[in-house]
Amino acid sequence: QVQLVESGGGLVQAGGSLRLTCAITGSDFIIRTMGWYRQAPGNQRDLVASITSGGSTNYADSVKGRFTISRDNAKTTMYLQMNSLKPDDTAVYYCNLKRYNGVNYWGKGTMVTVSS
């Protein structure tokens, strides 16, 4: 059974930093991509950053230059380093795994609140 558990969210002032962690268990299959998504109240869930099995990364324009996605070699832990946080970054952040067969796995999310 695949489980994704996010941690590291919290309240931070604008300009501050947070590091999110996603702990992954039960993924005894080849992962296509790993990623972070976020959803603010009343909004859809949007991609923040992703990393492929080969290590290529992709970022939403709104976070380029401020956020960095990474993972360990075993692909059991994924990180999102968030710097220069803005109030618009306030959202629930979700960890995601995609398999080559199209199946998606999601964590339950961690709340990030950036105060102005």
Written overview of the protein:
The chain has 116 residues and is an all-beta fold. 0% of the residues lie in helices and 56% in strands. The protein contains no helices and 11 strands. The strands form 2 sheets. Strands 2, 4, 5, 6, 9, 10 and 11 form a 7-stranded mixed sheet that branches. A 4-stranded antiparallel sheet has the order 1-3-8-7, with no helix packed on it. Strand 7 and strand 8 form a beta hairpin. The N and C termini lie far apart (40 Å). The model has no long low-confidence stretch (mean pLDDT 95).
β-sheet strand percentage = over 45%
Pattern of helices and strands: EEEEEEEEEEE
Note poorly predicted spans.
none
Reported for the largest beta sheet, the result is: 7 strands, mixed
Distance between the termini: 40 Å
Q: How many strands?
A: 11
Q: Can you give the mean pLDDT?
A: 95
Question: Which secondary-structure class do the elements indicate?
Answer: mainly beta
**Can you tell me the overall shape?**
globular
- Helical segment count: 0
Helix content: under 10%
Radius of gyration from the alpha-carbon trace, in angstroms: 13 Å
